[in-house]
UniProtKB/TrEMBL annotation, chains A, B:
This is Aminopeptidase. Coiled coil: none annotated. The lineage of its organism: Bacteria, Bacillati, Bacillota, Clostridia, Candidatus Scatosoma. Signal peptide: none annotated. It comes from Candidatus Scatosoma pullistercoris. GO terms for molecular function: aminopeptidase activity; metal ion binding; metallopeptidase activity.
Amino acid sequence: MRTSQLKKYAKLLARMGLNVKKGQTVFIQAGLDQPAFVTMVAEECYKAGAKAVYVDWSHQPLGKINAVYRSLETLSDLSPWEKAKWEYKAKDFSCRLFIESEDPDGMAGVDQEKMSKARRAQYPQLKPYRDAIENRHQWCIAAVPGEAWAKKVFPELSPKKAVEKMWEVILYTSRADGKNPVKEWKEHNADLAARCAYLNSLGLKYLEYKSGNGTDFRVELNEDGIFCGGEEKTLKGRAFNPNIPSEEVFTSPKAGAAEGIVYATKPLSYQGQLIENFSVRFSGGKVTEVKAETGEDLLRQMVSMDEGAGMLGECALIPYDSPINNSGVLFYNTLFDENTSCHLALGHGFNECLRGYENYTNEECKAHGINDSMIHVDFMIGSADLSIVGITKNGDRIQIFKDGNWAF
Amino acid sequence: MRTSQLKKYAKLLARMGLNVKKGQTVFIQAGLDQPAFVTMVAEECYKAGAKAVYVDWSHQPLGKINAVYRSLETLSDLSPWEKAKWEYKAKDFSCRLFIESEDPDGMAGVDQEKMSKARRAQYPQLKPYRDAIENRHQWCIAAVPGEAWAKKVFPELSPKKAVEKMWEVILYTSRADGKNPVKEWKEHNADLAARCAYLNSLGLKYLEYKSGNGTDFRVELNEDGIFCGGEEKTLKGRAFNPNIPSEEVFTSPKAGAAEGIVYATKPLSYQGQLIENFSVRFSGGKVTEVKAETGEDLLRQMVSMDEGAGMLGECALIPYDSPINNSGVLFYNTLFDENTSCHLALGHGFNECLRGYENYTNEECKAHGINDSMIHVDFMIGSADLSIVGITKNGDRIQIFKDGNWAF
């Protein structure tokens, strides 16, 4: 990919993704796949006024070695220096940028029970920091090609060509392949905001999903719930774009109020392993049954991570006929696949999907129906014939999606 | 390079370099150049019994960006998480492995005065930890090819071929290109130990250096000084090899007792910038004059970092006709170039070069003549005609080196 275009993408992440404020600290989490690009992003953050940019590099094969050889006890411990870093972030409200590039099944074969236990043991150590920064700092998830990931998506190409093709599709889907990505994102955010405004004017109480694949499902929305999309704001009003790309309009439904069954329409890469051809059944708002052709045990572990892991945190609406989906590229990566398909998320919900959340504590948001969990995992349920009907507080039925696409 | 040979090299670093003990923690510092090899080393450390292996990845171009954009204040601060990591290392006496691969002049153009100030400001924050672990933990410096470094050494080759050639010369000079590198190192260590034993039997008080290039120099040795080489031991008796490769026999001379001038015979890469064709004059044990065709300001800053930076910490003896030197490869990297040439080091000395140092504190070692400084920088003075004469406590003159090689 041309350096000049990559610089535009780097600038997009610094200016629109994080919207770095003068004097802020930035933490970047990145694999080792595209160091030159990560360095560009760091420079763009400095140009935007960052005081310091720290990069935490990770390397999935090393993570796999660690998972194999370390004891559960050692894996469960949050190290003193990780703790010190979290303390710093929580005090400083530093920007956080996650640059994904990992192999969707690079952790295949790792003992998932051990890893789940380790994550469960780490979570209480992390939670106070996560709670402290929630809605208070700018963050963004974006992606760059890793070779193994590119080969998974484009198996017919040579590694070099697969990586180049991945750059193309990442920049295309991220609206970063044009002359002025920052300007394009401003327009895109305005579009999403208008769609949210319409949905929020309807006073919806339920969403009902139906598809010929077997999906037959109803979820209750929160009394003071709202739909969001695109740009978000920190509690102090600093705008940022948490996902690049992002095509979705989403809300956090009422935790513990969902009935029926949904069938996934794309594979899910969870913790570096693939779950494929699966369904999830809800009863009384909770997952009561999961089935999967591949990765059923992993899926079962996922929904049992904690109480909230078996309840919904998000309902997101994306037309089936999005240009990304029509390209036919399956990314095996949630950041992209979630933007091609209506999806649900198990686990943690979003406080900002409550009207007036600025005045609530995390506990109060939870009491208003926002789910709380250590996980937040999207899975895709969009299909060509998906119908979604909204039912208002007055009992009116309004077609939201028809044949997989917006009905309005 | 063949994976099977790289695995042998990885094992050498874990078993002979660090000699990891069951239950120990290992910290690896590495560039992004050879992640697959670093992962192999981590696995070998686990196989040797490590409880946890942590890799701190670094990326020189990012370091350069940081140096340019961060304020002196931000650069001077040891972050809370770095502090926490040092505290851990000092408590745990963790193994430390440094895997070098950087471009010898990758930091060219960076404001050296700013960087020197930052290092000086950081040092008092680091020193207590460095003092706490000194002689108490196993550590090792080794190298892998970085592309920019390989191109600097083999400018006539393509990047890919230069990297492959670098692997060859690194494994060759590191005695890691054979069937059983661990066995070869055991034999090598025995050889170096025999040479040290002979030198230590002579009761030397001075070393006098002379060469046709202008070097004319005398340094006083410590009353209870000894020569060391190859394998070292922690205070608790755990053997390790701090440098791979290592061909040198060395001692720490008496700080503040050197007279005359030495002419460098190889370029020096210091903090990512090159110093070339230089000389250093000592008077009353201290550097009183430096001259350099390239990098004179940087050299002057280096010897002024602190009081000890202008005094000697090491005298090392290596024959001019070593196979590495005869290969004609100039590495622009001290780890290699120091093993092809007699050299001196400005700055920090080695406590273990005092007989009975186990019974002394760091302060007592200093009082016995071991230099103390935040820097330790080797520079090469070996030449084809170098003569070194040892003068014993009784005034006898013994030829140690003649025409650049061992005289005995």
